[in-house]
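Tokens in:
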């Protein structure tokens, strides 16, 4: 029960952050759906298995703009602490876009052609490392073979928050019927800290009832 309350609180905190950072149209939409207790969820990745696969069986990993430029990188790891929940792992992303060259790197995760019309929200839990520091802002992308839709995620804090992003908030999402990849981009133009460590857990698509 305590856990449930804790989860609910983090959910409310997540909504709060999102309500602040979104245009009023989305805020109104969220206000309506936030009252619903039953939400169908497709868990894409909870990182609770040691193999580098999502819950849907697909691979994920880090990417660098230029592997020869050692001043910029994104290194993913599965870690037991800190994590969301009492078992398994979270994904730790140690990133660096502090470079004399233009810098961007990040994380990719393959998706099994998820039909986006079945869902309304991308949900994920994030935590910025309180000691190593972390950007408050990253770019998210949903892709298919030919298109890319992007969204600047705000509200990363030094405590776990669940952020729920309406799919309509992704710029260019209307061109993507079935998503085949989710990408996180740290780029030197978007981040608020050029080096840091971000933790991710519980990535899911949700369909509001
Ligand atoms: Ca986990
Ligand atoms: Ca660097």
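Residues out:
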């Amino acid at each position: 029960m305590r856990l449930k309350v804790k989860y609910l609180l983090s959910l409310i905190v997540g909504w709060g952050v999102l309500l602040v950072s979104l245009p009023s149209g989305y805020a109104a939409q969220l206000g309506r759906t936030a009252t619903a207790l039953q939400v169908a969820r497709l868990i894409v990745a909870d990182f609770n298995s040691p193999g580098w696969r999502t819950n849907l069986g697909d691979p994920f990993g880090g990417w660098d703009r230029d592997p020869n430029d050692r001043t910029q990188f994104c290194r993913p790891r599965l870690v037991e602490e800190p994590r969301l929940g009492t078992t398994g792992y979270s994904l730790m992303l140690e990133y660096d876009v502090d470079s004399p060259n233009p810098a961007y790197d990040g994380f990719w995760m393959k998706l099994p052609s998820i039909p986006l019309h079945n869902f309304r929200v991308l949900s994920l839990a994030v935590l910025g490392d309180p000691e190593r520091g972390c950007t408050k802002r990253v770019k998210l992308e949903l892709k298919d073979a030919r298109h890319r839709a992007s969204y600047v995620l705000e509200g990363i804090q030094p405590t776990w928050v669940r952020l729920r992003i309406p799919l309509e908030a992704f710029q260019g999402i209307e061109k993507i019927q079935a998503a085949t990849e989710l990408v996180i981009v740290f780029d030197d133009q978007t981040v608020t800290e050029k080096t840091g460590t971000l933790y991710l857990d519980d990535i899911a698509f949700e369909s509001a009832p």
